[in-house]
Design goal:
Strand content: 15-25%
Oligomer: single chain
CATH class: Alpha Beta
Strand order of the largest sheet: 3-4-2-5-1-6-7-8
CATH topology: Rossmann fold
CATH architecture: 3-Layer(aba) Sandwich
Distance between the termini: 13 Å
Bound molecules: adenosine-5'-triphosphate, magnesium ion
Structural class: alpha/beta
Number of strands: 8
Number of helices: 12
Length: 267
């Protein structure tokens, strides 16, 4: 399957970095995959903070400036190889070289996950061009969804596959747009639904991905399900689910369809 996966949005703060860190660690820890996680939010590179990397010596900025090899910037954390960014880099670097630089290590990994910037310029393009396929991270409100539409358009214009929408920070469905309407407007499936809760804040405080900090949280469970689809492994069901099976939720059906699209009928 395609293995370079970009997380994009055009609205900031929707959860791209939190989700990228959790998905990468879930793929590694639960499914034993070799994962590279890259911070491509060059102007606000927060990924290191989620992965317990503070003040890295060399970063993606150095790689894109041609100063060091990508393999020399890797920090191993929570089973994941992480390439962090620098808050303070003020030299010149070429964001559009990301795809080229990743080529040098692509064969060493099962997955490369790129955490993007929301800026509609070369920053987001850097991720779009370097990715085989993309997830759009969105919250279920009109302003953010309008931006998400634009993100989908940018990806499609570049001929990239959009696997679906990860809906995050769901608060009060009475005042938010429902899943069916989102799918119709976006013309994309919702493949994960994550509620707003304080786990993200706590995990970030402890500088751990949520999949590591609190495996039982709704956040971690939803990411685990997505990681099962990507790695084509069976979802582990809870005793409760086995004893009291309920109708499949729409996002679960969408995940099964995604699994088929990525891995074929055998799934
Ligand atoms: N489901 C959630 N519930 C509550 N808080 C969340 C959730 N997901 C993310 N957050 C919090 O929202 C904030 C922004 O998240 P994050 O940095 O992942 O967004 P982002 O899309 O990467 O932002 P940027 O575009 O600035 O890079 C963080 O404080 C994070 O802990
Ligand atoms: Mg971010």
């Amino acid at each position: 399957m395609s293995k370079v996966i970009g997380m994009i949005s055009i609205k900031g703060g929707v959860g791209k970095t939190t989700i990228s860190a959790s998905l990468a660690s879930a793929l590694s820890i639960i499914h034993d995959k070799k994962v590279l996680l890259v911070d491509a939010n060059y102007s606000a590179p927060n990924l290191g903070l989620h992965m317990d990397i503070v003040e890295p010596e060399s970063t993606i900025h150095d790689v894109l400036a041609g100063r060091v090899r990508l393999s020399d910037t890797i920090h191993s954390r929570f089973g994941v190889d992480v390439v962090p960014g620098s808050y303070f880099y003020n030299g010149k670097f070429n964001m559009l070289k990301l795809k080229d630089r990743l080529k040098t290590v692509k064969r060493d990994y099962d997955f490369i996950i790129i955490d993007s910037s929301p800026n509609v310029n070369d920053e987001i393009l850097s991720t779009v061009l370097a990715s085989d396929g993309l997830f759009i991270v969105s919250t279920p409100d009109y302003p953010t969804l309008s931006c998400s539409l634009r993100a989908a358009k940018i990806a499609k214009q570049r001929g990239k596959k959009v696997y679906g929408i990860i809906l995050n920070k769901i608060k009060n469905p009475r005042y938010e747009i429902n899943l069916q309407d989102i799918e119709v407007v976006m013309d994309l499936p919702v493949v994960a639904r994550i509620p707003e809760d304080s786990t993200g804040l706590k995990a970030l405080f402890h500088r751990k991905p949520i999949s590591v900090y609190n495996k039982r949280s709704r956040f971690a469970k939803e990411i685990r399900k997505l990681s099962s689809v990507l790695s084509d492994k069976k979802e582990r069901k809870s005793v409760w689910d086995v004893l009291f099976p309920s109708d499949l939720r729409r996002e679960e059906v969408n995940r099964q369809l995604l699994r088929k699209a990525l891995h074929g009928e055998k799934a």
